[in-house]
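Checklist before submission:
- one chain only
- standard amino acids only
- sequence pasted in full

Submission:
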Amino acid sequence: MGEDGRLRAVVALAQGMAAAHTPREFWRAAALGARDGLDGSFAALSVWERDHGRLKVLVNAGERAVGEEEFPDAETYPVHQFPEITEFLHERWAGGGEPDAWVETAADAVPTGRVAGLRRRGRGCCVVAPIVLHGRAWGELYVARPLQEKPFTRADADFATVLAAVVAAGIAQAERLEEVRKLAFTDPLTGLANRRAVDTRLDEAIERYRTDGSVVSLVVCDLNGLKRVNDTHGHAVGDRLLERFGSVLSRCGARLPGALAARLGGDEFCLLTVGPTADEVVAVAEELCVRAAELELGEGVACGVASTGDPIGPLKSARRLFRLADAAQYQAKAGRSAKPVVAGRDGTVVRLADAPPGARDRRRFRDAPTVELPEPGAAAVPGPPDPAPDPGPAPGPERPGGTAWPVEPPGEEPTETALRLEEPSAEDG
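Returned file contents:
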């Protein structure tokens, strides 16, 4: 392969890794790009697991031998069988040298682990290029040719070193993107998922519900007494209460396969599940209420559940499931319920969530037990005139345009859920 061909191979390798969306796609792109660049028939990417003292194969790409899996779960090799990873390579680059690749063939007189592997799998030669990341051995790139092909040359080994450096740069970039992704989708205080992660996962869950009928359930929780703890003991103690409840939520959610435990913001949390039945989710929500009541300094939790496994009516958007869970949670809050309120089982939550905006604002949810809504399609019955309104607290600061921001009831803090109870859109069910 000439210089132009090798330049194209480097570009193709970098583009293939950049286009990957998952770790497995990245590993495959790296291995296949190296295989093609070196005119090989097979390539593997392995990582050095230092804590276990072994090389773990991440991907086998190309013409695999009998017994080789593309993404093996347990193909590992003790590092002591490959001393160059820990000794030779360390000596070469610890003092400022370069981690050069090398060639081994099935005809080599010294039967190393790789030579034995070549013979066992019917391959003629291999080139091994160490992958160095942040100044340390990360793993290796391995490319092989069959017996009938000519062996790799020193020039091939030099080019393998270049390809390994490109793979290392791709790994570093992927790690940075993964760290950014974690920051973007993780609540920094509790380590749970955040609202952005819930929105993304819920959209995917609703699509599954529409496609195959999978049961989608949402548990929304409001941690009671946080404001009192903050005011009495300080925000550091309040933060510890949030962290402890986050741990309880995670532990309870672990009973539901694939559940996403998240902090929506402030004192509000949620569990999102796809697959478990509504009854299974409600049982976990009940356990959550019990465990939350046992937290020191806490006052329990108000918990609402909405599930497509219950009679909640048509579900055309993720927003409606959130509204239902919100309404159920507010019912639990208003009634000081020690158990979760479940949309579709109590007779009022669904009507509250689907009521016109003026009938389902935050304060009316708080007073939900006393609200009587007409059945859909029924004519409104005029009642006695309303008494003169209580002037209530003084209006808050004005928002742009001159109207005042809503003032929360005394003793309560605004929550993000209040912001979620927005005007219904055309896509809402």
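Reviewer check: Residues 360-427 have pLDDT under 50 and may be disordered.
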